[in-house]
Task: structure prediction
Amino acid sequence: MRHSKRYETAVKMVEKDKCYLLKDAIILLKEIPKTKFDETVNVTIKLGVNPKHADQIVKGTVVLPKGTGREVKVLVIIKGEKGKEAEENGADFVGADDMIEKISKGWLGFDVIVATPDMMKELSKLGKILGPKGLMPNPKMGTVTFDVGKAVKDIKAGKVEFKVDDAGVMHTIVGKASFNEDAILENLKALLEAVLIAKPSGAKGQYLENVYLSSSMGPSIKLDRQEVVALH
Result:
């Protein structure tokens, strides 16, 4: 596979076997040649867990203090007057059976669904549509709640979910390449601290193995594991 000259230049800027301190990694990421669009800043984490065991699954949420840098469209499934609370806190779409029917016909013009517990029975009928896309609300992720105002506000403020995959790897975002260095650092620390706190009871041995930082179209920068572990 051939890479662009921009990417080849970027790769040469990253020392292959070096583990970078967080601040240094972010400085380097900012210096690497970018594409014309505002790339997302990604974090990849390899954990020493076996997700096949229920007591070793790692997942949770964290509100990035500087936001994600992208617009998130939130749909709230709710009945009654509390729908107004959702709208006042920035929900893009609010409804009940009407929205469920719309989704059943193929509409997916949203990024996140927040639903009240009483609506989950009806919403669960759309499991085949929402499940594979990771859009089904989950009480553990704070998206099944009667406090819809807070849920919407958190999501709009920069709340992101993290979850380990079957290979023990986690992928998530910490902002945009256009963010200044301090903003990326603050978001990165918030995410890493949340992942460290989420260490499951069944995890034995070295929990956090490797962490990499990258922009959407850039090479991976390996972070200093000791500095990361010391965050918690």
